[in-house]
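Following up on my earlier thread - several people asked me to post the actual chain instead of describing it. Fair enough. Here it is, all 328 residues.
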Amino acid sequence: MKTKTLKRAFFLVFLAALTACVPQRKFQDIAEKEKNCREENARLTKENEAFVTANNEALAKVEVAERKLQALSSDTAVLGTSLRILRKQYDKINALNDELLAKTTSLREGTEADKKKLMGDLEELRTALLAKEDALSQLENALNEKEVELVAREQKLDEMRSMLSRKDSSMAALRRSVADALTGFEGKGLSVEYKNGRVYVSMEAKLLFATGSAEVDKKGREVIIDLARAIQGKDDLQIMVEGHTDTDALRSSAYPKNNWDLSVLRATSVVNIMLDNSEIDPTLLIAAGRGEFLPVDPTDKSKNRRIEVILTPNLDELMNLVSDGPEN
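Reply from S.P.:
Thanks for posting it. Predicted structure:
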């Protein structure tokens, strides 16, 4: 009994040990397979990535190849067009060459009449050419004459510019000398200006005359005498003395009867004082009356009542230079 019991116990222990060993081997097998699966998966993943990369590169190369093919097709079309154009040009050149050969042959084989006609045509052409040469020669001669005339005109123009410059400088200097001579009266109804190549000496009537009078008072005589002596000896001047009035009408039955008379009488009075007290050439003087019709300030009658002495350079020399110019 005891032996059976021991055997049974041993069997049970052996069976338990055997039962415990089997699951351990299965676990190891499963673990081994799992490891192999992971390694295989990693290998396949790398292969897949390599495949994707290779595929992308292949697609890029295909795209480049397609673009090159498209460009090649375009170039081929252009070359085809160029080839057709060249062939047409070649055909035209051949046709022209054939025509020239035919004309050369015809000329060589031409009759005497054709040769005479050709010589006649050549003679007409030569005559026409000679006529053109004569016309060209005449044109060249006319052009040379115009160039000579142009040079002469340029020289005369330079002389005129130089003369005007001298006149301008002379009048500017005259303005300064007149202003210096009348310094004591400037600001007292007298002004000296240089404009448009002329010197303007303006004297308000209150500096020279009593109201409505053409007789110059003592102070006015001093101004006029100083002015006359400043410009005496200037024989290259024209001296215009202008009388101006305001718009107030004269109320007198005696002479002067109106502003015209008064303006003329005042200008004449100034001229007489200038002649009596200087060596001014009378032929240089002009007395003129302007009446009320050239006001300098429509709002100030006192400024409009004035005597203006206008000194103008003598331009006779310049006019002679202009009139002596070549006729057109």
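The CA atoms of residues 214 and 266 lie 5 Å apart. That should answer part of your original question.
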